[in-house]
Write a structure and sequence with these properties.
Elements: E1 8-14, H1 21-31, E2 34-39, H2 46-52, E3 56-59, H3 66-79, E4 84-87, H4 99-108, E5 114-118, H5 128-145, E6 157-160, H6 176-186, E7 191-195, H7 211-224
Parallel strand pairs: 1-2, 1-4, 2-3, 5-7
Antiparallel strand pairs: 4-6, 5-6
Length: 226
């Protein structure tokens, strides 16, 4: 039996995503009535395009990082009584229609509090370097978590409201998505995986390969020392 979707909300963190955000938000809105775009200080038309899709929009006055955008969204829906919050990217890599996969997973698994998308069942369309990096990082993060998480780098995920207050701390930028999994795991929560597909188009990653890789290793070293 599928859960009541009126108590499931979506957060779409967005920075300089005027090209895709309207379509992503509109398609998410077709799946869930409660959808929020968090515009992280964009200087383009991201917030205007998001509003045109008929969803809620919160704008950070300056860029604060993806982690802070996610936390803004989680706090927003926690205050409004949502049972689950879905996170998906604004660049079109995640198919909003696959929100149903997370809803179905939660309906059949009452133990997991966090569900993470996994693109690793079919990596034929994943760029080779990204596939190698994802497997390497997922292995290291899984060991830090003490449980196997096939695709720790996937931003398409769903959290139960019980776990949200526990993960509202942590990093401010891209490494927050990793830290969220470590925090949840070390508090005794099981992370479930949900098979998804990913669309690779002409989007340009906002990840700085040097700076954000250094942040990742600094994060992993900190948790190894705890």
């Amino acid at each position: 039996m599928e859960r009541d979707r009126s108590r499931i909300a979506a957060v779409i963190p967005a920075y300089q995503e005027e090209k895709y955000v309207s379509e992503v938000a509109r398609r998410a809105r077709a799946q869930l009535q409660n959808v929020l775009v968090v515009d992280d200080g964009s200087t383009d038309a991201t917030s205007d395009r998001a509003r045109s899709a008929g969803v809620d929009v919160v704008v950070h006055p300056q860029n604060r990082g993806k982690g802070e955008s996610i936390k803004t969204g989680l706090h927003y829906w926690l205050q409004r009584g949502s049972e689950y919050v879905v996170l998906l990217d604004a660049d079109g890599q995640h198919l909003p229609e696959e929100i149903s996969r997370f809803v179905e997973a939660a309906a059949s698994d009452n133990q997991a509090k966090i569900f993470v998308g996994s693109r690793m069942n079919d990596t034929s369309t994943m760029p080779f370097v990204r596939r190698i990096v994802n497997r390497y990082m997922s292995g290291k993060i899984s060991r830090a978590c003490g449980q196997q998480i096939p695709d720790t780098q996937c931003g398409f995920r769903m959290l139960h409201r019980d776990i949200i207050p526990e993960v509202l701390s942590g990093a401010s930028r891209f490494e927050y998505e990793t830290e969220m999994l470590i925090i949840a795991s070390r508090k005794g929560h099981r992370v479930a995986s949900v098979p998804i597909t990913t669309v690779y188009s002409d989007e340009v990653s906002s990840i700085n390969p040097v700076r954000d890789t250094l942040r990742f290793f600094k994060l992993m070293r900190r948790y190894r020392e705890l």
